[in-house]
Amino acid sequence: MRHGSIPGTRGHVRPLTLLGDPLLHAPCEEVTDYGPELARLVEDMFATMYAANGVGLAANQIGVPLRVFVYDCPDDEDVRHVGHVVNPRLIEADGVVLRGPEGCLSLPGLEAGTERYDRAVVEGFTVDGEPVRVPGTGWFARCLQHECDHLDGGVYVDRVTGWRHRRVMRQAARAPWNRRSTAAPH
Ligand code: ZN
Questions:
Q1: I need a labelling partner for 92 at 20 to 30 A (CA). Which of 38, 138, 180, 186 fits?
Q2: Residue 36, SS3 per DSSP
Q3: Helices (H), ranges, the chain
Q4: What is d(CA 38, CA 4) in angstroms, rounded to the nearest whole number?
């Protein structure tokens, strides 16, 4: 890969929106302007995702309520997938349902067993308006479903059930990044 083509190298790291931020819990709007602003947004999203050691990031996680996500994520065969999708639609999600550990840059340091389909296909557009189709399996299929959820105002903990849900919400309430944290200051 040519150095200049590595995504995010020209981007700026932006602050992450965290659980409880209204932007994270509201559906994002369709992108209608495929101009330089959109390309800059995608660059900033890559820079922010890499700085936080994430495998995927949705635009509302940096406070921009537009339907865009980026990813740099391996699948279960260790094939690396890198890209972005504008106005993505999850057109297929099937195969076996697997519960696996899932985390999110908007709930730093936490994870919980979350059920996802083992296979997913997303269709959308590049920043240039070219159609793209992104199929994924395993861990990458999980990532695609996770990012599509974000753009609909969903967070993975919404899909966690029972004691797992109670535990992760308790951990979130106590987390140092939570402004309503009940943890003692240190
Ligand atoms: Zn997330």
A1: 38
A2: helix
A3: 36-51, 138-151, 162-174
A4: 18
3-class DSSP state for residue 55? coil
Q: Do the beta carbons of residue 146 and residue 56 sit within 8 Å? A: yes
Is the CB of residue 136 less than 8 Å from the CB of residue 75? yes
Structure tokens at 174: 């106590």
Q: Are strands 111-125 and 56-58 parallel, antiparallel or unpaired?
A: unpaired
- pLDDT confidence of residue 1: 40
> In the chain, what are the domain boundaries?
22-174
Query: Locate tokens 């966690």: which residue?
Result: 160
Superfamily of domain 22-174: Peptide deformylase (3.90.45.10)
Clarify whether 130 is annotated catalytic.
Answer: no
Q: Identify the helix (H) or strand (E) that includes residue 136.
A: strand 131-137
Q: What is the pLDDT of residue 181?
A: 66
Tokens encoding 72: 């740099």
184 has a pLDDT exceeding 80: no
Distance 57 CA to ligand 1 centre (A): 6
Q: Which of 111, 123, 130, 147 is catalytic?
A: 147
Neighbours of ion ligand 1 (CB under 5 A): 104
Exposure b/e, 130-156, CB count within 10 A at least 16 = b? eeeebbbbbbbbbbbbbbbbbbebbbb
Cα 130 to ligand 1 centroid, rounded to whole Å: 25
CB 113 within 8 A of CB 157: no
The pLDDT confidence band at residue 3, using thresholds 50, 70 and 90, is very low
